[in-house]
Amino acid sequence: MAIRERLTEYRDGSTVLEGFFCHDDSRPGPLPGLLIAHEWGGRSEFVERKARRLAWHGFATFALDMFGKGKRGTTSAECSALIGPFVQDRALIARRVSAALTALRQHPEVDARRIAAMGFCFGGMCVLDLARSGADVRGVASFHGLLKPSGLPAQGRIGAKVLILHGYDDPMAPPEDVLAIGEELTAAGADWQLHAYGNTRHSFTNPHANDREAGMVYDEAADRRSWHALLEFLEEVLR
Questions:
Q1: What φ, ψ does residue 96 adopt, rounded to 5°?
Q2: Which of 167, 165, 166, 171 is nearest to 199 (CA)?
Q3: Residue 135: which domain range?
């Protein structure tokens, strides 16, 4: 096994973006592709580790870039400023993620017919909006994602299968948001499932999350359980 990785530049209009591509070149290709959307601070070692780990499972992974090459946030204020334009303009989210999807498909190691997407926190909202947009992907998985509707015109039936992995005590996606997205996905004819982890808050997969006042706390059990749920989901939608 030889995990290969490289940075890939791509564009959304005039914005230069830089994604992290990773695959196991000992496996016969082309490989199923997996788009990975980052948290509110930008593409980081956190999602790159996920990309490497999933490449080991046989996926060609691409950790996308929502903000622009080199743009990162290190404080809550910086991160809020980065995601602000996207939260206010959900069409921008769909377009930016679509650009990353196109970039992933252009890698020769990727089977363009077998693509899924996953995301964490802000990235969870990004991949849910990708599904809402009607994009041609087989499935999307949201980890402690923001669940509020996009406010954009409905695109008809959601063809992508949807997996939502959620901390029940997440202050950023309270129970009323959970109920609302269930109703939304049902109305759109989606094949969806939601796993809610009790006594679990936002950012439960991130070992560095330790801000109880803000409701962002790592949870080892939920992290482990959600990872197994993801692998089962990907086996279903991409194999």
A1: -70, -40
A2: 167
A3: 3-238
Number of domains present in the structure of the chain: 1
* Residue 123 Cα to chain centre, angstroms: 4
- The CATH number linked to 150 is 3.40.50.1820
Residue (of 196, 184, 192) closest to 144 by Cα position: 196
Task: Write the pLDDT tens digit of every residue in 29-65.
Answer: 899 999 999 999 999 999 999 999 999 999 999 999 9
Question: Checking DSSP bridges between strand 15-24 and strand 192-197, what pairing results, if any?
Answer: unpaired
H or E element that contains 121? none
Nearest-angstrom CA–CA distance, 25 and 4: 7
Reduced to 3 states (helix: H, G, I; strand: E, B; else coil), residue 120 is: strand
CB crowding 39-68: b at 16 or more within 10 Å, else e:
bbbbbbebbbebbbebbeebbbbbbbbbbe
Q: Which of 101, 155, 156, 105 is nearest to 126 (CA)?
A: 101
pLDDT in tens, 72-93: 999 999 999 999 999 999 999 9
Distance CA 226, CA 205 (A): 8
Q: Rounded to whole angstroms, how far apart are CA atoms 208 and 28?
A: 36
pLDDT digits (tens, 9 = 90+) for 186-224: 999 999 999 999 999 999 999 999 999 999 999 999 999
Helix (H, G, I), strand (E, B) or coil at 82: helix
- Within 8 A by CB and 6+ apart from 139, the residues are 116, 117, 160, 161, 162, 163, 233, 234, 236, 237, 238
Handedness of CA 135, 3, 18, 146 (dihedral sign): positive
